[in-house]
Amino acid sequence: MIIGHGGNKKALAKRLCCSPKEIIDMSSNLNPLGPPEGFEVYIQENVKEIRSLPEVDAMGMIQAFSKSKNIDSARIAVGNGTTWFIYTLIQALKSKEVLICGPAYSDYKDACIMHNVQYTFLNSSEDSLFVHDLNKISEVADNFDTIFICNPNNPTAGLIAKEDIIKLINKHPDTLFVVDESYLPFVNEAEDLSLINNAELANLVVLASMSKIFRVPGLRTGFLIANPEIIKQVMHYYQPWSINSLAQKGVIYLLEKEDQNKAFLEKTRKFINEERESFIDNLKNTYGIQLFPSETSFILAKLTLNLKSNDLCRYIGDQKILIRDCSNFYGLSDKFVRFSLKTQDLNKRLANLVKQALKQ
Questions:
Q1: Range of the domain at 328
Q2: Most buried of 103, 161, 324, 331, CB within 10 angstroms?
Q3: 202 and 341 part of one domain
Q4: Hey, is 135 helix, strand or coil?
């Protein structure tokens, strides 16, 4: 199942006979400005925490998240990454018919396969610039007990307005909606767009991540926010000591640095907005490629000439840069790639390499 995931630095380094450290990963959607200043020093200073067992239920993380987001702790579960929750939810909720609003993250599908659950894709179209049609979702929603929506969506970067999702959820009270907000922190005014404080929606589960925005994916932590009854169902499958000592320590540290986090998020969003606009400007008049609208840190592109996604990935890879081949996303093809923004120099370099490849 893990073959559905993105670029592999070690595999490319092996092909190029170089060190993985020489590979620039522009396939993974991580904050180029992270982690926040002082975080890695804090982890180093607390490395001796690994000598003891972590808090068995990670209650310290739950309480820190509860205070930071002003959410009742009974509505929060913490896990070993949001992906862990995706696989656990299917089992805990006893889902039987799942709708995946795609093209989307492969683990929604893989979780269904693991637990022998029927799943159906409802893909947004290229004609609509890969923006989900909520009317079409609503037309079929009552046929499913669980619906996965990634907002903003990966890999298409489309964003659904909060009020539109709420209307959809309210219209179908017998269907559970799992809204994955892993990439929402990159979006302007994300705090106002998030659904985590909508406690009145009993049929809503929100997945929240700190891994991408703070660039700490190796810590493997994630949050699930839902009504207490759903939390109880999920906790039936929770294993003791699921989150390691350093991860717990690090997440609590981040959550308690509210003033620093606010400044960090503002800086990140400003940087991402400027770099995304610059990257799009660099390629907008380039024959052979179409860039789709994005409000987050990555951009979906379609190759409109004979060049295929694996050809472009190999050409860029020869320059020790990884980009995401999107041919294995259901609903896309071997004409689609995804670019994840990094530093200004790297973004310019990537844009120039894409132009060169299209001239070959």
A1: 2-30+260-359
A2: 324
A3: no
A4: helix
The rounded distance, in Å, linking the Cα atoms of 82 and 87 is 9
Q: In what helix (H) or strand (E) does residue 251 lie, and over which residues does it extend?
A: helix 245-256
Spatial contact of 151 and 180, defined as CB atoms under 8 Å apart: yes
The rounded distance, in Å, linking the Cα atoms of 106 and 118 is: 15
Tell me the mean pLDDT in the region 204-217: 95
Strand partners for 223: 78, 208
Cβ(229)–Cβ(197) below 8 Å: no
Residue 225 lies in a domain: yes
Residue 300 one-letter amino acid:
L
Shared-domain flag, residues 236 and 342:
no
Helix axes 245-256, 59-69, angle to 10 degrees: 20
Residues 165 and 288 in one domain: no
pLDDT digit string (tens) for 102-142?
999 999 999 999 999 999 999 999 999 999 999 999 999 99
Whole-structure pTM value: 0.94
Residue type, 328: N
The contacts of residue 232 (CB under 8 Å, 6+ apart) are none
**How far is it, in rounded angstroms, from Cα 58 to Cα 76?**
11
Q: Please give the Cα distance from 327 to 330 (Å, whole number).
A: 8
Pairing of strands 176-180, 298-303: unpaired
Q: Are residues 21 and 151 in the same domain?
A: no
Cβ-Cβ contacts under 8 Å for 86 (sequence gap 6 or more): 107, 108, 111, 148, 178, 180, 207
Q: How far is CA 321 from the centre of its chain?
A: 21
**At 164, which helix (H) or strand (E)?**
helix 162-171
Question: What is d(CA 203, CA 175) in angstroms, rounded to the nearest whole number?
Answer: 7
Total number of domains in the chain: 2
Tell me which DSSP letter residue 95 carries: -
